[in-house]
Amino acid sequence: QLHRRGFRCLHGVDGSAGMLEQARSTGLYQELRLCVLGTEPLPAPAEHYDAVTVGGALGEGQVPSTVLPELLRVTKPGGFLCLTTRSNPSNLRYKAELEAALGQLERSGAWQKLLAQEVEYWERATTEEESTQGTGYISGVVYIYQKCPVPHPEEG
Length: 156
Description:
With 156 residues, the protein is α/β, with parallel strands linked by helices. The protein has 2 domains: 34 residues, no CATH class; 104 residues, Rossmann fold, CATH 3.40.50. The chain is 21% helix and 33% strand. It has 3 helices and 6 strands; from the N terminus they run βαββαβαββ. The strands form 2 sheets. Strands 3-4-6-5 form a 4-stranded mixed beta sheet. The protein has a two-stranded parallel ribbon with strand order 1-2. α1 links the parallel β1 and β2. It is globular and about 55 Å long. The model has no long low-confidence stretch (mean pLDDT 92).
């Protein structure tokens, strides 16, 4: 979808070499790197990207919410971060932890929340217990933040 909307310079990271090979086979990415989010620095310089997205990885047993400062580090001031997580019962503790970390960064002035939108039919549930009200789907949330510009010291 990003490519169809004019985004042509796409870089990707994943902790799985197999997933990187699948991504490479699409022909959509200019750069793909092996990186385990939350345990090692992203392979990019500070303030490098106009937009950073994390889809399908912020969840219980996956990428820890402590990755947020690293995502901010590689985003240009004024740039955007689009993050997602699931709202299924087994992910609620993680979601609460993530939202606390998101709020802390907003209160510190690191970024501004532009959107937090619930999506009822995020993905198919694998068990009835995970299904949102018996729909067969798991709900999720999309968060969009904009990195705040770095204040410049007063010239005097």
